[in-house]
Please model this.
Amino acid sequence: MNGIVVGYSPYVDAYQIRLGDGTLDGWIKAYRILSGNSNVIYVAANAISEALNSPHLPDDPKLNDQWGVAKVRADEAWWLAAWLLAEGNMPKNNKPIAIIDSGIDLLHPDLAGKIIRGHDYIDGDDFPSDENGHGTHVAGIAAANFSNGEGIAGISWNSDILAIRISGKDGRSTLTNTIGAIDEAASKGAKIINMSFENPLLVAQEKDLMQRAVKRAHEKGSLFVAAAGNINSGILSTSPAELDHVMAIGATNASDGRWVVNGIKGSNYGSWIDMAALGDKIVSTFPTGTVELSESEGCPKNYCALSGTSMAAPFVSGAAAVLWSFYPNWTPDQIVERLKKTAKPLPSQQLGAGRLDLFNAIFDGSFELSNYLVGWSLPGGGNSSIQKSWRSLSPTDGAQFALVQQDSDFAEKMARGESFAPSLSLSF
Ligand SMILES: [Ca+2]
Ligand SMILES: [Ca+2]
Model:
């Protein structure tokens, strides 16, 4: 069968196997062999197209407009998470996300109950409301209320949002406000700090000041995600995305090309980009009243589609929060590494590691496993049962997987790299 183990999840205690024969027939053959082994508790396909109608997916009415959800395989990640949550095998709350931006509509129905009010550096108060629209949109992508029968589903199903306002109606900010906001976010315990703004013109001393603030926060355990900027440049880098310990996020479109509009506006690219996420016509929350972007972007109240690297960054911020809920003890650098190494490569796009793939990020730890797992397989014979909820056999993303659960002792041995009986070392 030529299968190889490409991942292991300690939470589901399951191995992910990529089958050499990716057809349905190949899967069925592999299923019969694996499910016949007494060490295998169940075998299931990692394919959940049927689950789109299942109760595991959120009921938010605009989910159908959120093309990015399936593209980054957030739906599959949610599906796995829903099962783990139900089993009590996962934290109910994801890591808090700070949105340093133009503020957030504090009255929005799809952000209600999520927002922790940070400082408003424009008004000098603690009501960081949004007169521009940008911050409200960014916040929703990362963490709008999930499965609440309203609006959209945020990528992270249960993250608090720390709203910090550094720009007014015109969307412009200052270095002082930005540095204050970074220090504030870290001191208030935000694990993920989203910065969907760009400045290509900072001088060295200004960059250094911002870098120092980032470094302080990074040392407190914060992960930074920033927009790479929208000037369609392969030469200019922008701050804060270019700084050390900050993920620089470019933007892609529905066909995994770099997001560009008429060759004028587009995602920046180049060797300084870490990875990319979706930035083309992204539907998210928008202020309930009239704001600056209402007219310029033709946005109705409450929800609107906007484009740019500003939208791509919160996809990654939300994804980081979800990934962290699966691996609560990881450091920010481990989260960053996993997100990058499991991204879908986009050769020749100059968008770093490629486009976010949240399901892969959660499940594909192949690069962290040593080679002894490659070629691992099981012979036939014994009892098994298939999980009834995991019934779809359709391939996703061109690959077929089986999830194979072992008894816990077996998993521990595997994790320690111990050898097994010869009966467990056959090749497919
Ligand atoms: Ca205010
Ligand atoms: Ca919602």
Summary: Residues 4-54+366-427 form one domain. Residues 60, 110, 144-145, 148, 150-153 surround calcium ion (ligand 2) (CB under 6 Å). The CA atoms of residues 183 and 234 lie 30 Å apart. The longest helix spans residues 309-326.
